[in-house]
Design brief:
With 138 residues, the protein is mainly alpha-helical. The protein is built from four helices and no strands. The longest helix has 58 residues.
């Protein structure tokens, strides 16, 4: 369980205990649990923001040196496949190309979550579809 969930749970437990011990000597203790839960929740959010900032800084550095060259490589490969293959064979090559891009991105940019890598691959695929449609119009 992460810190945010633990903190929120402590807040609810503290509120429950505060209501339960409203006229008791444990009232201050119950309020302390609530405040502790609040601070743990805030700390959890701050920690997540810091982690995301570190990832964004790394990603900003790696876009030009890792991701863009990979996209260019696979885009050129897709153009080659488009010229050399047709129909079902092209579809199979294209699916393999997307899987290879996803695998290579996961290896070279390990700090990205799988979901984020899949988003990049899906966006790449959409762009390739647009380029394919544009080349067919000409």
């Amino acid at each position: 369980m992460d810190l945010k969930k633990i903190g929120i749970l402590l807040i609810f437990v503290g509120i429950f205990l505060t209501i339960l011990f409203l006229d008791s000597k444990f009232f201050v203790t119950a309020l302390t649990v609530t405040v502790l839960g609040f601070f743990i929740t805030v700390f959890g959010y701050v920690t997540d923001i810091r982690k995301q900032k570190i990832i964004n800084d790394k990603l900003e550095k790696d876009v030009g040196s890792i991701i863009q060259p990979l996209i260019t490589k696979y885009s050129n490969l897709n153009r080659k496949y488009c010229r050399d293959f047709e129909g079902d064979e092209y579809v199979q090559k294209r699916l393999q190309l997307n899987r290879d891009l996803e695998k290579e991105l996961s290896e070279k940019v390990p700090y990205l979550e799988s979901r984020e890598v899949k988003k990049i691959v899906i966006q790449f695929s959409k762009e390739q579809d647009k380029m394919l449609q544009d080349s067919l119009k000409e």
